[in-house]
Write a structure and sequence with these properties.
Keywords: DNA-binding, Metal-binding, Zinc, Zinc-finger. The chain is α+β, with helices and mostly antiparallel strands. The protein folds into four domains: 106 residues, no CATH class; 199 residues, no CATH class; 226 residues, no CATH class; 82 residues, no CATH class. It is built from 32 helices and ten strands. 32% of the residues are buried.
Length: 752
């Protein structure tokens, strides 16, 4: 939330400048002087605590000598600072204007009291100046005492340590070396870098460790852990400062990650920064323990107590999950919405809608298909030679249709298992995939290692199962009704707007299929049987079901009936329910408000009805009472300009307009709306940096070498950091480590 200056005739706020803003002091006497100089009569009745909590003055009202910049990112006031620079006359030029911050008219008694105070202050300053001149030498000595040579050395030493930790994180270098069991261990990477810096001339480190034996580690495990915690916390705080300034945000979680044998949930936040750009930043890993209610409580505690944010300001949530984990995260989303209804549950823009829908279906046969697709994706990314084998297999099966073969080969180059049409592609590729896996498994020329041939055998066994084939065909056909809808959701703002208005038709089609399930299943099952016949795969009921059926003494069930009851019907019903859940009326209202984007207004011939949907965020607006009039003015503005200029086509372009600030409700509405996770990140190359870095870290780092703190540093390596802030924070959190508390005794503790 932006800070506004409390000074009369001052309209500055934190979102419009780089000026520092300062709270009113808690000290009652100093606070009284601030209020007196402000000449704000309405502030006199408030307590110093109230003023400290709710009111600010910008740096323009203080003598520059009173303002100190302690670091590139931190500005503070001197303890004796009093605001003295005010504009108390400009409002007189427009006597009819309304002023929320009315200036107090001074009585003769007020003027006399101010003169007496200023005279006393002048005398006090004169005496103080004489005292300062007389004790300059003493002050210099005291300054030296305040930061002794030993303490300065300690801070330089800490700075060097933090430089090493930051470098380890940025370059994704694990703390420990990769040494097989039974082999003599080398020094850790951390210790090796310490030695390198000492040998390169780092005097702070050399003085610290010159008496330490060569064959020991330089730092205790506890201090190393503290360094990592401080680094991680400082970088995270830089991101959180921007989130707090923007106020509204959405929570996005990723798939589970393993650290030290425990599963963790990656947490991202979406928000609009001060440059009005939408960003998605990685914050932390949340331990994935306990039931759904426990996870809701942990996530809520992390956001509020851990990060200092308000869940009441959360406007969206999305959870990218697979397998049984998806069912659990869906329950977490429902739990959060129960407490915070405005935290709308939506799909994530980074995951195709059809993949999200399939992952949300808790049926074993569906989850086998999804797990197999993920295995195939990982399998072909191991080596270009594997991709070459797949292309050869495609050429064999489509030798009479070169156009189709070229189309499939091109599709397989990119991440085809993550596309909207993944199920259509998989059906077309199924025969080629099975042939490819068989060739790799045979390994006639011994081109592939045993691990690769073993993976190929496992995948081939799944592909050659009729249950897999029929489930894949049913998913392809059932999700064909949502494919175009989902593709539009990941498109431009205009595409999303039309998608929101087409949902009724999508649900109507799905319900029609469900009402005529017998007919549709007959066609789909016939397609699966024909495909299995070409691949010479027998049509049969799954072995596991037959075994359970025999034990229950039930009669035999035909394959067509079995797959209708246990796959087709549950899949269609599950897709309808999931679409209903993630596109509730509130979600649709919000998406239909994309008509505020000028290009969409123009496309609709300015015949839009935003006011009918705007109530969804009405409480977030600065002036909700004036919203209808403001929307009318907004529409008229662009209607008149539509023939002269190109209309902005995205929320980002609209927010960059200089005159959008004259429409405060529209400005706020668009900022809240764009944080919804269902909307695409407009500058995806920049905005998806955190998500891509997380994937890179996980793929490049073996599980045993993963470190949560270093992962946070690596993923957020684009976030600015200040080593001096890290040093100050360490000294504040761990004062026992400073020299006067005997840090040398701890540092010299050796770990063989």
């Amino acid at each position: 939330m932006p800070n506004f200056c409390a000074a009369p005739n001052c309209t500055r706020k934190s979102t419009q400048s780089d000026l520092a803003f300062f709270r009113f002091p808690r000290d009652p006497e100093r606070c009284r002087l601030w209020v007196e100089n402000c000449r704000r009569a309405d502030l006199e009745a408030k307590t110093s605590d109230q003023l400290n909590k709710h009111y600010r003055l910008c740096a323009k009202h203080f003598d520059p000598a009173m303002v100190c910049k302690t670091s590139p990112y931190r500005t503070v006031l001197k303890d004796t600072a009093i605001p003295t620079i005010f504009d108390l006359t400009s409002h007189l030029k427009n006597p009819n204007s309304r002023h929320r911050k009315r200036i107090k008219e001074l009585t003769e008694e007020d003027i006399r009291r101010i003169k007496e105070r200023r005279l006393a202050s002048s005398i006090e300053q004169l005496h103080s100046k004489k005292d300062i001149e007389a004790t300059e030498g003493q002050d210099a000595t005291e300054e030296e005492i305040k930061l002794s040579a030993e303490e300065k050395d300690f801070r330089d030493y800490l700075r060097s340590l933090f430089e090493i930790v930051v470098m380890l994180g940025k370059q994704n270098i694990p703390l420990e070396t990769n040494v097989p069991e039974g082999v003599e261990r080398d020094p850790s990477n951390f210790q090796a870098l310490l030695e390198y810096r000492i040998n390169a001339g780092d005097e702070a480190l050399r003085r610290r460790f010159e008496a330490t034996a060569v064959n020991v580690e330089y730092l205790s495990a506890s201090q190393q852990s503290r360094l990592l915690d401080v680094c991680e916390g400082t970088v995270r705080e830089e991101v959180l400062m921007e989130v707090r300034e923007s106020r509204f945000f959405s929570v996005v979680t990723g798939d589970l990650v393993e650290f030290a044998g425990e599963r963790h949930l990656p947490l991202f936040l979406r928000f609009v920064d001060q440059s009005n750009a939408l960003r998605e930043e990685f914050l932390d890993f949340l331990p994935f323990e306990g039931d759904e209610a426990s996870l809701v409580e942990k996530l809520e505690t992390q956001v509020t107590d851990g990060w200092g944010l308000r869940m009441e300001d959360c406007r969206g949530q999305a959870h990218v999950a697979t397998g049984t984990f998806a069912t659990k995260m869906k329950a977490v989303a429902v739990g959060l919405m129960g407490k915070y209804p405005m935290a709308m549950h939506t799909p994530c823009s980074t995951c195709a809608l059809n993949i999200h829908l399939a992952n949300s279906l808790p049926f074993p046969s569906v989850q086998v298909v999804m797990a197999t697709l993920r295995k195939i994706d990982v399998f072909f990314k191991q080596s270009p030679s594997l991709q070459t084998e797949l292309e050869k297999a495609i050429s064999v099966y489509y030798q009479e249709n070169n156009e189709k073969a070229a189309e499939l080969k091109e599709a397989c180059i990119s991440n085809w298992t993550e596309q909207h049409n993944v199920f259509e592609l998989t059906v077309d590729l199924l025969e080629s995939l099975l042939l490819c896996m068989d060739c790799i498994r045979d390994n006639e020329n011994v081109k592939f290692p045993d691990a690769v041939t073993g993976d190929a055998y496992s995948i081939a066994e799944t592909l050659a199962d009729f249950e897999f084939i029929v489930t894949l065909v049913i998913l392809k056909n059932a999700l064909s009704f949502t494919r175009a809808f989902g593709k539009n959701l990941q498109g431009e703002a205009l595409d999303v707007f039309f998608a929101a208005n087409s949902l009724t038709a999508v649900l109507h089609s799905l319900n029609e299929v469900f009402d005529n399930i017998e007919v549709y299943h007959e066609f789909w099952f016939e397609e699966a049987v024909n495909l299995a016949g070409i691949m010479e795969i027998p049509v049969k009921v799954p072995r596991l079901f037959l075994r359970k059926n025999r034990s229950a003494d039930a009669g035999e069930i035909p394959p067509e009936t079995y797959f209708k009851e246990y796959v087709t019907v549950p899949v269609i019903r599950g897709v309808i329910d999931e679409v209903d859940d993630i596109f509730s009326q509130s979600n649709l209202k919000a998406l239909k408000c994309l008509s505020l984007v000028p290009a969409i207004m123009g496309q609709m011939k300015f015949n839009t009805s935003e006011e009918n949907h705007a109530d969804v965020y009405c409480k977030d607006l600065p002036n909700p009472d004036t919203l209808p009039a403001e929307l009318h003015c907004w529409k008229i503005k662009w209607k008149h300009r539509s023939k002269e200029v190109r209309l902005p086509s995205t929320i980002h372009e609209t927010l960059q307009l200089s005159d959008v600030k004259f429409f405060p409700n529209v400005n706020c509405f668009l900022k809240v709306l764009t944080t919804l996770p269902v909307l695409m990140l407009e500058d995806s190359n920049r905005s998806e940096t955190s998500r891509k870095r997380l994937q890179t870290y996980l793929s490049d780092t073996p599980i045993k070498h993963r470190c949560k703190s270093l992962a946070v540093l690596h993923i957020n390596s684009h976030v600015k950091h200040d080593l001096d802030v890290m040093v100050d924070k360490y000294c504040r959190l761990y004062p026992e480590d400073e020299p006067e508390h005997g840090v040398e005794a701890e540092i010299s503790t050796v770990v063989i």
